[in-house]
Design goal:
heterodimer; A: alpha+beta; OB fold (Dihydrolipoamide Acetyltransferase, E2P); six-stranded mixed beta sheet; 8 helices; 24% helix; B: MetI-like fold; 2 domains; two-stranded antiparallel ribbon
Chain lengths: 347, 277
């Protein structure tokens, strides 16, 4: 059973002498919420625009339900796009905006009216048909943009940082709402963002991209807990990234001490990168600690305190709900399952 | 503080705009009178005189030629602006410069140069003679005047339309394409309606100087060619009837105001202004 709706095969994009995409291979499943996550310039928007048909890949193929669609123009794809800036038609009211695609398809007026009011219900703006676009708030405008795309019943909805222009509180609300909309209409969403928190909140699958390459593909939990390299670990959440040596299977050495580990399959004495999330570092008394250090700074962050512990070899970023006094000596404990060992990158 | 900063402008406009306008109004609604203490008296005689068919015909011709020139400017200028807006930044700047450079040259000179191109012994007729064709009467007719207007005022049509088109959000066009609109629908439903403020500025900026010109009609239309601008000039400089001249000027102002009002009505609907008014 093939459950994929979109397949990207060896996708490359070259602008002049800049290679924006280097060999992207990706399967997108039906009905999943997939997020392309990465810093600006990583190629995520270009990937999205190639899926939408606004740009052509220099090399490589794109398949939709098994059929090659490299040269299909955007409107012939069962894919619609929601852009970053709301891009509503400013000279039309809400109804005219949403009905735009339906009118082009020459649907009878009665059907158009019905569909528009149904889709407005879905995005929580029932009765807004005759509003002027510029009388709406940013969040409302973006919902209209989503409604305008969804009313055409696409199989895949592409969203290019659609919440980027909204303030934090509204963005969080819209994240949950988007996820609900996706569940309700039951279609594939491909979402582009540089906001790791947004990606973790909404996605079924996250694709972390950097430098035109896919760094890691996985569920939010996998990506957070098992980053596959230094870049992913740095980009998703905060972390302590340390040089270490894999002495043998299940034993790793860093900070001048040997630790038990859950990882295996490395060469003996291979140099590795080690990621330890700040919330996974336990603080205990000096005597109980595997490592000992001084509390160097304490910042209150609301839910937790962010502390920097200065130890003989390095500084550790630690999140803890209990405050330690600056200058006090504390012990550090790290459990084997919280030590994430990654292959060292060549450079 | 804020109040005082506007004073120089108010004083300026009173001296150089409002006062002269009032003078024109005063002259327009009066005629010379030997019995009156001031030397003139209130009368609508000037306006009555203008209602004679010869003058009305001149007014009609001026308006008609201005409308034609404006339309031609629009027909040439709009596609040109579109091509311009779509080309690369480097080419765009080059072309805008090319459009603007002639405006640095004296207006009279530019219009004179057309005389040497269109005249009996001009470039075109000389060329026709060389290849053995009969000479054409290119100068001193409506065509030459319209050509002169279009040539001189075309930049005023292109620049505002071009500005609006370059500012247009590219995403909007992509959305329309994504929703299935072909190029014709994108143009008629999205691009053109959104560029209306620029079109309206362009029309205004071409129509106004075109309807009141007297230099172009004098040089390219010939000595016996009358537009309303020439009529005003004649009253002031040759016949010395400032009263009738002012009345004609007032009528011309009313015509322009009327045209503006029509334009404004269209623009109000759009409710967003890159427009001039």
């Amino acid at each position: 059973m093939n459950n994929n709706i979109i397949r990207l095969e060896n996708l490359q994009k070259i602008y002049g002498d800049v290679q924006v995409l280097k060999n992207i291979n990706l399967n997108i499943r039906k009905n999943e919420f997939l997020t392309l996550l990465g810093p600006s310039g990583c190629g995520k928007t270009t990937t999205l625009r190639i899926i939408g048909g606004f740009e052509k890949a220099t090399i490589g193929n794109i398949y939709f339900n098994g059929k090659k669609i490299n040269d299909l123009p955007p409107y012939k794809r069962q894919i619609n796009t929601v852009f970053q800036k709301y891009a509503l038609f400013p000279h039309m009211n809400v109804f005219e905006n949403i009905a735009f695609g339906l009118k082009i398809k020459k649907l009878p007026n009665k059907d158009i009216k019905k569909k528009v009011s149904e889709i407005l219900d879905l995005v929580g703006l029932e009765g807004y048909e005759n509003r002027k676009v510029d009388s709406l708030s940013g969040g409302q405008q973006q919902r209209i943009a989503i409604a305008r795309a969804l009313v055409n019943k696409p199989k895949v909805l592409l969203l290019d940082e659609p919440l980027g222009a909204l303030d934090l509180k509204l963005r969080k609300e819209m994240q949950l709402e988007l996820k609900n909309i996706q569940r309700e209409v039951g279609i594939t969403f491909v979402y582009v963002t540089h906001d790791q928190e947004e990606a973790l909140t909404m996605s079924d699958t996250i694709i972390v991209m950097d430098n035109g390459e896919i760094q890691q593909k996985g569920s939010p939990v996998d990506i957070y807990n098992e980053p596959s390299n230094r870049f992913v670990a740095k980009f998703i959440g905060e972390s302590n990234i340390i040089d270490g040596i894999m002495i043998e299977d299940y034993v790793v050495e860093f900070a001048g001490k040997k630790f038990k580990s859950v990882d295996k399959g490395f060469k003996n004495n291979e140099d590795v990168d080690i990621v330890i999330r700040p919330e996974d570092i336990k603080l205990v008394s000096e005597e109980e600690g595997m490592l000992v250090g001084n509390v160097d700074s304490v910042i209150f962050k609301g839910v937790h305190y962010e502390m920097i512990i200065k130890e003989e070899n390095r500084e550790w970023l630690v999140h803890n709900t209990l405050k330690k006094e600056i200058g006090s000596k504390v012990g550090i404990i790290i459990y084997p399952e919280d030590i994430h060992v990654m292959k060292k990158e060549r450079n | 503080m804020k109040k005082f900063t506007s004073y120089p402008y108010i004083i300026w406009s009173v001296i150089f705009i409002i006062f002269p306008l009032l003078l024109v109004l005063l002259y327009g609604i009066t005629i010379p009178s030997k019995t009156s203490f001031f030397g003139f008296k209130l009368s609508i005689e000037n306006f009555q005189r203008f209602c004679e068919p010869i003058y009305l015909r001149v007014l009609w011709k001026s308006v008609w030629l201005a409308i034609l020139s404006t339309l031609i400017c629009l027909i040439i200028g709009y596609p040109f602006s579109m091509i311009l807006a779509k080309s690369s930044l480097k080419r765009r700047n080059k072309f805008v410069l090319l459009i603007v450079i002639p405006m640095w040259m004296n207006f009279l000179l530019r219009t004179y140069s057309w005389m040497t191109i269109l005249g009996k012994n001009g470039i075109i007729n000389n060329f026709l003679r060389i290849i053995g064709l009969p000479a054409l009467d290119l100068l001193y007719n409506d065509g030459a005047v319209i050509l002169g207007m279009v040539y001189n005022f075309l930049p005023f049509m292109i620049l505002p339309i071009y500005t609006v088109l370059t500012k247009m959000n590219r995403n909007i066009l992509e959305v329309a394409e994504d929703l299935g609109a072909n190029r014709f629908v994108i143009f008629s439903k999205i691009v053109f309606p959104l560029s209306l403020p620029g079109v309206i500025s362009g029309i205004t900026m071409v129509f106004m100087p075109a309807v009141s010109t007297f230099v172009i009609s004098k040089l390219l239309g010939g000595g016996q060619y009358w537009l309303i601008g020439n009529l005003v000039e004649e009253q002031f400089l040759r016949i010395n009837d400032w009263h009738f001249g002012s009345a004609i000027a007032l009528i011309l102002m009313i015509v322009i105001l009327f045209a503006m009002a029509i334009m404004n009505k269209y623009e109000d609907k759009e409710d967003r202004g890159v427009g001039l008014w």
